[in-house]
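At this stage, I needed to go through a protein sequence along with its fold in token form, as given directly below:
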Amino acid sequence: MSTAVSGARPLIGITSYLDQAAWGVWRQPAALLPQTYVEAVTRAGGIPVLLPPQESGARELVGRLDGLLVSGGPDVDPARYRESADPRTGAPHTRRDAWEFALLHAALDADLPVFGVCRGMQLLNVALGGRLVQHLPDLVGDQRHQPAPAVFGELTVRIRPGSLLGGVLGGAAGVRCYHHQAVAGLGRGLLPSAWSADETVEAVELPGRAFVLGVQWHPETNPDDLRLFDAFVTASRTVTTGPVTADRSVTAD
């Protein structure tokens, strides 16, 4: 089991996509991750390690990590929160869902620092028993959170005073969003810590932990503002991981 030592470079596991990809003469399934995540973790002082979807081994891997970053990606399967799929919800990526839920439960049980980005925040919410809005424009009346394919929505979020997030970013922040789903019902123990102007929850955190934070936006895309990665890697460097204990477990059924 990894033990983070003050001053050492922490080992940060980053979850990946599993999609068809093309390179050279090849086109086949591949574990993929935007390089911006790798660069953000490296710049913050961590050592990034790719965690591609696989059938088993989540707890063994978590035991060797100092922090877990759950990256963005496709919609979470609505069956995970006991709902039927809206026609506008993307096709389920069941293998990635299963792998990331296993990693996240193991990390929460071990009190490992966790940082969820976009899908990663939604996954954190669902893992703790929460629900999602499957098509946000139906609720807020416009496309400001995902204006067009591959176009980020530029939003300002207000941040809860005294929150973990507020301690890093202050009372408000300009962010880049790209999501058509959002929190509908909060998971157990989660505290909403940021909202957009239309009251969409844009960040959640788990009080009482060294660092468990999910944001609906994409901080890895903004090289001028990587403060959240700095805070996450710092927490991963200074928190010593220990064995799983029943009274610390927040694993959902």
Observations:
- Residues 94-109 form the longest helix (16 residues).
